[in-house]
Amino acid sequence: MIMRKLLVLLLIAACGAKPAQPQVPMLPGDGDTHVAKPVEVVPPPAADPWSARKDLIAAPAPRAPAPLALPKIEEFKLSNGLAVYVVKNDRLPVMALQLAVRAGRMHEPRARLGVAELTADMLVKGTKLHDAAALARTIDFVGGTIAADSTFEATLVSCSVLTRSANTCFELVPEIITQPAFPEAELARLRDNLAGSLRQRFDDPATLASAHAQNLLWGSEHVRGWINNEQAIEALHREDLIAWHRAWFVPGNAMLVITGDVDVKKLKPDLERTFGVWKKGPIPPTPTYQEPGLSGSRIRLIDKPGVSQTQIRIAQFGIKHDDPRFFDTLVWNYVLGGSGAGSRLVKAQRDAGGEVYGASSSFDRNLDRGSFVASTVVRSPAAVATAKLMLGELAKMAKDGPTQDEVAAAVANIAGSYALRFQTASDIGAALIGAELHGFGYEYLTNFPIAVGGVELADARRAAAEILDPKAYVLVLVGDAKDLEPQLKRAGWRYETVAFSTPITASVGPDSAAPAPPAPPVKPIDPAAAAAAKKLIGEALAAKGGKAKLAAIKGIRVVSTGTTTIQNQTMPVEISRVLVVPDKMRIDAKIRPPGAPRDVEVTVGAQDKTGWQRGPDPKTGTYAVTDMTGESLSDVDFERWREPELILLKASEPGARLEPQPDDAIDGKPYSVVSLATPFGIAVSLYIDKQTKLIGRMSYHDSHTSESDDFADYRDVHGVKLAYKRTSTGDGRSTTLEVKTIELDPKVDPALFAKPAPSIGPPGGVPGGAPGRPPPATPPPATSPSGK
Amino acid sequence: MPAAAAPDVPKPKAIGKLPGLETFTLTNGLRVAVLHSDTSPIASVQLWYHAGSKDEPRNRRGTAHMFEHLMFQGSTHVRPDAFAASIGALGGYVNASTDEDATHYVTTLPAEDLDYAVQLEAERMRNLVLRKPAIDEDRELVKEEIAQQNTSPFAQGLQRCLAVAFLKHPYAWTAAGNARELEATTPDDLKKFYDAYYQPNNALLVVTGNVTAAGVKASADKWFGAIPRAAEPPRPAQAAQDPAQTARRREVVEPGPVGLVLVGWHLPAARDKDTNALQIASIVLGAGDASRLKQRLKAPDPRTKHPIALEAGTDAILREDPGLVIALGAFLDPAQGDAIEAAIFDEVGVLATKGPTADEVRKAKNQIQSGLVFSLENVQGLAESIGRSWILTGDPDALFHDYDLIEKLTAADVQRVVKQYLSPDHATVVVIPPKAR
To answer: Is residue A196 within 8 Å of A138, Cβ to Cβ?
Structure first.
């Protein structure tokens, strides 16, 4: 629950960021292009003492585009239906193998956002035959690389080796594809890494702007409108990955491209032997969604207080890759915003006299329509004026199209640069996969420059006029609302405002496209059993000190110290927990990871319906305060609700849903067990010592985890029995705490629960600000102690 | 010029079906190397100047680096930024990079525009316009890059280690430069450096891709032919060679954000054949999770259950003049520094007495050879390997020998070089304790 996540964050900060993973070649123009598009920085125009010269060197005139000569291709199918493409090039003794499975973000159900990415990441993290370390050792030994990644449309696995080590790829790739083990420990680690990186990404205004633009354009009923987030990743389990893999990873849904110095004749039997074990299976239908319409324009302001710049996105629907206007669109978009400092969007800002940080526009290149997005970032006082300027450029392009010179320059660059993308065996393989996924074939690659060269001025103009609609667009501004709202109001623009911390795609509700399995129906409890459970609670309440004494408690402060053990690493921990009835809570945790020079501190505060946390940023190590929303906030709620010293009050409320459970034993001592339903959909089991009637254990199981907290060494504090020894276990970790002090009704400054200003330094006051970031190290343990 | 290749070197065996490298020299001393590749209709045109940070005046560190930026700021017949913009318009791209031994300029573009790229390189070899606004702008850029470099504790540690290991040689500093000295660098200083080093007889033109040697020769003659040969440039480093180290040096410097133990040993110059075996030794010791130092320093200590170090590894820095191999361990607990230092010497000692296993040697060879071959897959990497080979060894072809030379090495060769070069008495130790909290 909550502390688990917090301490993970803290351990990431203490141990360094995730080491860089080898990158798989991406498909050209993958559907996630807009998610984190970097915006080019444009230098200010330089003075030109050359203007008077007549003898400047002239650049050569662009040449007519010619077809790209590529090595010939051999195609065949294995007996299990796997399509194989071989491109032989024996110039160097290298071989690359690339496998694409049509299983990407576009295939994910809404209730399992992130499953494609997490499954791909997990493929190299262990199989039924080898664990992650053994797989890494095998590929390291031959000096090769193996990697897996997912895109909007597919999961890609690639393996590159010297030809003499070709068997390493032929053995490893079928193994990771057909027998992944998805080991829990690796999964927990990757899930936390991915959740952490998503949290980081959405703290970045540029990423946030791109994600909101997709969401606003496509809405909540289309896969393109769903934006993955930390909560979605944390809700993914091993079973989800197994189910995803079982459904989509079948040979008929995949293609294999082998490039480089290979013997085609010998290859066929080798592939039958190695990839032949991949069992045929039905291919699930690709989910389809109704395209939302867009009439008029919508504006969303994402309020990120304290930033001085505003990220601007203007989005419209794009075109399919197989649209006959695709190449025309490449050309006019190059002119509009696809050519860096020379594009119209940049020139317009420069001519308007503003400081230009860069601007661009781009299209998705996908099976479906995808999006067109124009992007820039400006100083906030110029935000709305710049948005107007960009809309003006879009309108001008729609009305008049590009000029003849602009078309010529675009064709020269696009056709001229194309060949530069085909150099290595992997380049050719990746491009071939991109073409085949879209049903184009090899000739698409060869003829690409010709197709670009065939775009005439009239074609580009017509396409721009048809595709750009100056009256129907979405506009997203990410900046400080106090700077932006006056500008928007002055412009008379209607807009919605969203806090930057609000999850873009809400948690899945019952009406989602692919709902999570429904909760089991609530069974009525046998009245006799309920009465027996109520009696047990009554006895426990009396042993604790009586209902009146407990109900009179207005607050508790518990300070404890001890150790926590995570994956066989034991480290000291110190926790202070303050609760003020009914809704104020604060937990301060200090932990000393092994080898760390200083404690890492994490604080959680909550009151009423808000919560915040403060801890080191996993990337920079600087302390940051963030709002808790969604699932994190409900974790805090649950944590407050089940305060162990007061839970018997909850259990004795008239509406409490109690049910006796079979007796159990802890360390040989007999306990009665009562389960108490909570408003969080989870039941908490209370273990009541048959002899003393004191609670010896509280435990719960939810879909994430199971937790168990043991209580011992009860002492009398002002007539109430309080436990001085607490042990929490769950998820392969355990925390043992000795209580140092317990105060009932402590004097508490109400400011303790309020969100601190972001500028305050770490509680320890680290000299010089942020602790230095240690070098890349093994990713931190994935689970952490609970903070009871 | 770097020393010429030794005459008794056999003709290199080709890697795969790569055609042989064709080389020739213009009358003004410009050397040209051409390697044909028809995989793609493109070419990489690179000009390698034998001018790196080791050629800088001692009080003008960063001068070489300044040119990496200034060379795009306009010449007599090319407007500022027009170099990059016009190559971009053709679909190509440009880049440049400075190191301790050389500065090189990269233009990769459609092969049919080879002549234009050669013309632009010849133009800026002698016609660079050094304007104050451009110098000021680039100085800020270089200072920014220096500041960037200094944010990394590793880079800082490496700089300290170099400064301690090299008492006389300019490898004591890195190519990024020194912000204070850049402030003091005048346009005249820059002009002096440009006139000394940016000359045909101090450069190598490398062209790879879908071109012919005849085509490259025609362009090189046409555009570079008229540039006169210049005086041989000064080589301040030649008079600043470090004497052989005779005793261990050890310095504990001021604390940093992360504790680091760096142990360096002087290597022979890159052209020495022993560097291949030393590269294998470096990989066996500290490259990859299964390497000896990582196993020793990053696995949990049986007594404390914690690893001794946060990170560990080795790197062999091969340079034209004798370089350095560095083993390092990073740590946060001040008490761990001594254990890391002892473990590094212990592992090197074991390697010297027992040598590597056959598997370790095979793995290291695989890694070096595949790294080399993968780097040759694209025209830019291929040209860079050729240029670097020339700078490091005086022979643009040398890299093609390495593949075979490395294959022939044995565990005994590796053991011998470890004994010879990585002796505990010749080590330089720099300890950066972690800052106290």
So the answer is: no
Question: Who wins on pLDDT, A567 or A68?
Answer: A68
- Which of B332, B378, B382 is the best residue to mutate to test the A interface, defined by the most A CB atoms within 10 Å of its own CB? B332
For this complex, say whether ipTM is above 0.90.
no
pLDDT over 60 at A763, yes or no? no
**Is a pLDDT exceeding 80 seen at residue B157?**
yes
Residue at B18: amino acid letter: L
Contact B380, B44 (CB under 8 A): yes
The model's confidence at residue B17, banded by pLDDT at 50, 70 and 90, is: confident
Single out the residue of A233, A232, A236 nearest to residue A244, CA to CA: A236
Distance between CA atoms of A693 and A687, rounded to whole angstroms?
A: 9
Nearest by Cα to A72 from A415, A435, A417, A446: A446
The answer to whether B80 contacts A46, with C-beta atoms less than 8 Å apart, is yes
SS3 content of chain B, % helix, strand, coil (to 5): 45, 20, 35
Select from B17, B89, B379 the Cβ nearest to the Cβ of A59.
B89
Across the interface, whether the CB atoms of B39 and A423 are under 8 A apart is answered: yes
Q: Check CB contact of A409 with chain B, cutoff 8 Å.
A: yes
Question: What sign has the CA pseudo-torsion A266, A270, A276, A278?
Answer: negative
Rounded CA separation A408/A279 (Å): 51
H helix intervals, A334-382: 344-351
Nearest to B149 by CA among B137, B161, B140, B158: B158
Residues 116-145 of A with CB under 8 A from B: 133, 136-137, 140-144
Test B41 with A66 for CB contact under 8 angstroms: yes
CB contact under 8 A, B85 and A342: yes
- Buried b or exposed e, range B390-400, using 16+ CB within 10 angstroms: bbbbbbbbbbb
Q: Is B343 helix (H, G, I), strand (E, B) or coil?
A: helix
- Cβ-Cβ contacts under 8 Å, B109 against chain A: 416, 420
Contact list, B363 vs chain A (CB under 8 Å): 140-141, 143
Least CA distance to B328: which residue of chain A? A775
User: Is A165 within 8 Å of B366 when comparing Cβ atoms?
Assistant: yes
Residue B157's closest CA among B331, B339, B334?
B331
Residue A596: how many CA atoms within 13 Å on its side-chain side?
26
CA B123 to chain centroid: 26
CB contact under 8 A, A137 and B78: no
Q: CA of B326 to nearest chain A CA: how many angstroms apart?
A: 16
* Residues constituting chain A: 788
Confidence bin at B6 (pLDDT 50/70/90): very low
Contact B177, B62 (CB under 8 A): yes
d(CA A270, CA A277): 12
CB contact under 8 A, A47 and B133: yes
A420–B93 CB contact, under 8 Å: yes
pLDDT the model gives residue B97: 96
pLDDT of residue A591: 82
Full-model pTM: 0.71
pLDDT tens for residues B161-171?
999 999 999 99
DSSP string computed for B250-309 = EEE---BSSEEEEEEEE---TTSTHHHHHHHHHHHHHSSTTSHHHHHHHSBPTTTSSBS-
Nearest to A704 by CA among A786, A649, A609: A786
Contact assessment for residue B344 and residue B161, using Cβ atoms and an 8 Å cutoff = no
Q: Chain A residues with CB inside 8 Å of B368's CB? A: 143
Q: What percent of chain A has pLDDT over 70?
A: 84
Choose among A55, A141, A414: nearest Cβ to B77: A55
- Closest-approach residue (CA) in chain B for A144: B370
Closest CA of chain B from A696, distance in Å: 31
